[in-house]
Amino acid sequence: MHEFKVSDMSCNHCVHAITQATLTVDPQAKVNIDLPGRIVHIDSSMPADNFRHAISEAGYTAE
């Protein structure tokens, strides 16, 4: 399980973009996004850096 704070995520479009970016890394990943808390939870065995990079490529900052 990976958890990222994505401070620049602010709307449902952001949620969709981040979800799609995450699924390009691991199509089997389970993604749960807390929009008000700006937290992305990803259940996957892939390395966290892969997801961090994909979220960054989508235009967001994953901390």
UniProtKB/TrEMBL annotation:
Family matches, as CDD domains: HMA
Leader peptide range in chain numbering: none
Single GO MF descriptor: metal ion binding
SUPFAM superfamilies the record matches: HMA, heavy metal-associated domain
InterPro entries given in the database record: HMA_dom, HMA_dom_sf
All copies of domain HMA, residue ranges: 1-63
PROSITE patterns, sorted: HMA_2
Protein name in UniProt: Copper chaperone
Organism of derivation: Methylobacillus rhizosphaerae
Taxonomic path: Bacteria, Pseudomonadati, Pseudomonadota, Betaproteobacteria, Nitrosomonadales
